[in-house]
């Protein structure tokens, strides 16, 4: 009498996706609307004087990172109990959540990447001149994807630590999570990256090594997250 | 499919607080079990462990002979409902039903819709905006429609008014007969549900006081009423749970089956033997400071 | 309104015993005829809101006493001589449980046996009450 059903990992991923896709669509709609607004309002001669080589879009990446960080923080406190009480193991929840985070990061990375040619198109439309550099879209896409994934994983780690342990531990983990954030920014950022006024510079590495390093950070954080979920007790109310 | 439950020396500790201590029992399955206990007796902790919501601090929980914790095959067969079933407060009723429907292998959509109608649950409402009774009704809907081979309701009737509670009991019984499976109902409203149980387990102070077929348990309790001195003499050697005196008449509740000889003696002594309601038996057995059995 | 179940069963004897007694009473009064099918345990359980195992226990009691018999796959039926057996059993118990007790009670409160006989005679002639 057991009906055929999907693997629990996909059940989790699908349910998370259907729960958060509205939020994702809303976020990106508002985000792009703001940028198009800025584009339209920005006088072209001013941008020429300032010699903006990279456009404003390239500086926009931090916002989706924070958005995904917050989604990550909320993930376990909001959803773990619902799934485990529906007979899903913690392991499968983590699996589904990883899949979900990859999907969210992928979509966000795609939008960010597509944003560059669109921005150039808009600038040319209004200014008629090519003033923006052309980034390598594939590289940009991969870098955004891994960066987003890393931020999501770190947010998830913070949320999980609040769920798993007490609030003191949660705060400690929140502070410690700056370490992987700094690492990701140092490795991924081309040139110096700034944080709290400090400037970090990394010796330049090949792109592939950089990406592998970010991936490694994301994988390590995800592994820690799995560790925190493995034997966690289901709580009644957290928030 | 019958899934047996085997609890072996299970303890649940929260830091220094011991909620459940060295509890062992076996349930053969496909019955309606009653788990009785006063508030704080460890019912919820025990059931949480049974449903893999938490790991036992000591001991083992086996279902179908397998360790349950993080066992995907077992966990998808055990549905544990407390109020609205741990669903996120931000969910709408529809979201919660959708999630449950995609997770439970035996989910019966038609039955879920029938129950939603029965309890007049609006799909659009957010769980946070539901009254306590409505949250309970949602939990009951999910628990019953899951058709999980092991379905556990932990005081699932909280906030429900009497007619709704009785509708719940009737639904459990009806669906149990149509789709035999294991039900475990934890409760302290024994008078209302007592007749539904085939077997009863009583927890007291984190320990298992007894596990008994409910009909046998009912027969175990006897009240002896008559002149005080004759009653006192009669109950020597019997396990006395409680006594009441009215003037020179005394009524004593004893636990344990009376031999035919004792029954005859009561008649010749002019003492009246009476039954004890399950609820009274439970109250006597778990009385504070009582020695239990 | 009192809820079903509450008013049907008192706590004086086990529920399955009461179910058995009720079926017996129905047979004696003729509500249930010989060879007639009785309600299933599930129907009993649903009607009285009790566990079907409890109802089944009552049926088992009656099968052991030869009051009911089972047709495999169909259900439980009233035995051919069930009514006769029950009536006979009640007759047997009548003197022990009713007459003997009455006499004992009469002795305690000082009613002479002759008065009882007179009373019965008067009832027999239809002058009672």
Largest sheet of chain B: 6 strands, mixed
The percent range for strand residues of chain B is: 25-35%
Query: Could you say how many structural domains of chain A there are in total?
Result: 1
| Helical segment count of chain B | 11
Quick one: which chains have the greatest interface?
Answer: A-B, 30 and 36 residues
CATH superfamily descriptor of the largest domain in chain B: P-loop containing nucleotide triphosphate hydrolases
Structural class of chain B: alpha/beta
Distance between the termini of chain A: 38 Å
The order of strands across the largest sheet of chain A is 1-2
Helix content of chain B: 25-40%
Strand order of the largest sheet of chain B: 6-7-8-3-9-10
Provide the structure class of chain A: mainly alpha
Shape of chain A: globular
The total domain count of chain B is 2
Tell me the span between the first and last alpha carbons of chain B: 35 Å
Number of strands of chain A: 2
Mean pLDDT of chain A: 83
Sequence of secondary-structure elements of chain A: HHHHHHHEEH
**According to CATH, what is the topology of the largest domain in chain B?**
Rossmann fold
Pfam family, one (chain B): ABC_tran
Domain ABC transporter (chain B): 5-230
GO molecular function, one term (chain B): ATP binding
Keywords (chain B): ATP-binding, Nucleotide-binding
Describe the structure.
Chain A has 239 residues and is mainly α. Chain A has 8 helices and 2 strands. Chain A has one domain. Chain A has a two-stranded antiparallel ribbon with strand order 1-2. In chain A, helix 3 crosses helix 5, helix 5 runs antiparallel to helix 6 and helix 5 packs antiparallel against helix 7. The longest helix of chain A is centred in the middle third of the chain and has 38 residues. Chain A is globular and about 60 Å long. By secondary structure, chain B is α/β, with parallel strands linked by helices. Helices cover 34% and strands 31% of the residues of chain B. Chain B has 11 helices and 14 strands. In chain B, the strands form 3 sheets. Chain B has a 6-stranded mixed sheet with strand order 6-7-8-3-9-10, sandwiched between helices. In chain B, helix 4 packs antiparallel against helix 5. Chain C is mainly alpha-helical and 129 residues long. Chain C has 2 domains: 66 residues, Winged helix-like DNA-binding domain superfamily/Winged helix DNA-binding domain (Arc Repressor Mutant, subunit A, Orthogonal Bundle); 42 residues. In chain C, helix 1 packs across helix 3 and helix 2 crosses helix 3. The N terminus of chain C is likely disordered. Classes of the chains: A mainly alpha (239), B alpha/beta (293), C mainly alpha (129). At the A-B interface, helix 1, helix 3 and helix 4 of A face strand 6 and helix 3 of B. Chain A: Keywords: Membrane, Transmembrane, Transmembrane helix. Chain B: This is ABC transporter ATP-binding protein. Chain B: It comes from Paenibacillus paeoniae.
């Amino acid at each position: 009498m057991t009906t055929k059903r999907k693997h629990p990992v996909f059940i989790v991923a699908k349910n998370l996706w259907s729960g958060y896709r509205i939020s994702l669509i809303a976020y990106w709609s508002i985000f792009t609307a703001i940028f198009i607004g800025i584009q339209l309002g920005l006088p072209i001669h001013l941008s020429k004087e300032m010699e903006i080589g990279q456009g404003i879009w390239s500086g926009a990446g931090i916002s989706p990172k924070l958005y995904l960080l917050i989604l990550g923080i909320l993930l376990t406190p909001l959803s773990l109990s619902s799934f485990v009480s529906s007979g899903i193991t913690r392991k499968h929840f983590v699996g589904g959540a990883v899949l979900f985070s990859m999907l969210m990061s992928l979509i966000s990375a795609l939008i960010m990447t597509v944003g560059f040619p669109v921005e150039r198109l808009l600038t040319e439309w209004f200014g008629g001149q090519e003033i923006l550099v052309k980034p390598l879209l594939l590289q940009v896409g991969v870098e955004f994807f891994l960066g987003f994934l890393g931020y999501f994983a770190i947010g998830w780690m913070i949320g999980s630590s609040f769920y798993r342990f007490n609030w003191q531990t949660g705060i400690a983990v929140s502070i410690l999570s700056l370490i992987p954030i700094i690492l990701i920014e140092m490795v991924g950022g081309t040139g110096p990256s700034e944080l709290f006024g400090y400037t970090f510079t990394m010796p330049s590495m090949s792109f592939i090594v950089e990406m592998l390093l970010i991936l490694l950070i994301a994988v390590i954080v995800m592994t820690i997250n799995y560790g925190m979920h493995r034997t966690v007790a289901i709580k009644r109310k957290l928030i | 499919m019958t899934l047996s439950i085997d609890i072996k020396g299970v303890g649940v500790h929260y830091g220094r607080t011991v909620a459940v201590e060295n509890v062992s029992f076996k349930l053969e399955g496909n019955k309606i079990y009653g788990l009785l206990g006063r508030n704080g007796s460890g019912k919820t902790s025990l059931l949480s462990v049974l449903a893999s919501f938490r790991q036992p601090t000591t001991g083992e929980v086996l279902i179908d002979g397998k360790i349950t914790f993080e066992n995907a095959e077992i966990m998808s067969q055990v549905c544990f409902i407390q109020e609205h079933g741990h669903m996120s407060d931000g969910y709408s009723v529809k979201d919660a039903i959708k999630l449950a429907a995609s997770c439970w292998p035996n989910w019966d959509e038609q039955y879920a819709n029938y129950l939603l109608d029965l309890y007049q649950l609006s799909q659009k409402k957010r769980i946070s905006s539901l009254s306590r009774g409505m949250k309970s009704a949602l939990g009951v809907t999910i628990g019953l429609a899951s058709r999980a081979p092991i379905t556990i309701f932990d005081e699932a009737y909280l906030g429900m008014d009497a007619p709704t509670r009785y509708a719940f009991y009737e639904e459990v019984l009806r669906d149990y007969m149509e789709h035999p499976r294991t039900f475990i109902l934890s409760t302290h409203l024994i008078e209302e549900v007592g007749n539904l149980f085939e077997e009863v387990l009583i927890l007291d102070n984190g320990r298992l006081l007894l596990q008994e077929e409910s009909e046998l348990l009912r027969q175990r309790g006897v009240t002896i009423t008559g002149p005080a001195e004759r009653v006192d003499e009669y109950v020597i050697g019997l396990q006395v749970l409680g006594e009441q005196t009215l003037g020179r008449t005394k009524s004593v509740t004893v636990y344990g089956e009376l031999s035919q000889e004792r029954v005859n003696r009561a008649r010749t002594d002019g003492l009246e033997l009476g039954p004890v309601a399950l609820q009274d038996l439970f109250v006597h057995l778990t009385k504070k400071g009582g020695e239990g059995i | 309104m009192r809820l079903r179940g509450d008013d049907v069963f008192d706590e004086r004897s086990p529920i399955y015993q009461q179910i058995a007694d009720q079926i017996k009473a129905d047979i004696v009064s003729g509500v249930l005829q010989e060879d007639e099918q009785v309600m299933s345990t599930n129907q009993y359980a649903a009607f009285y809101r009790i566990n079907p195992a409890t109802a089944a226990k009552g049926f088992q009691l009656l099968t052991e006493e030869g009051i009911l018999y089972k047709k495999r796959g169909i259900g439980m039926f009233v035995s051919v001589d069930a009514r006769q057996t029950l009536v006979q059993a009640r007759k047997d118990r009548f003197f022990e449980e009713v007459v003997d007790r009455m006499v004992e009670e009469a002795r305690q409160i000082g009613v002479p046996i002759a008065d009882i006989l007179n009373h019965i005679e008067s009832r027999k002639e239809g002058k009672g009450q």
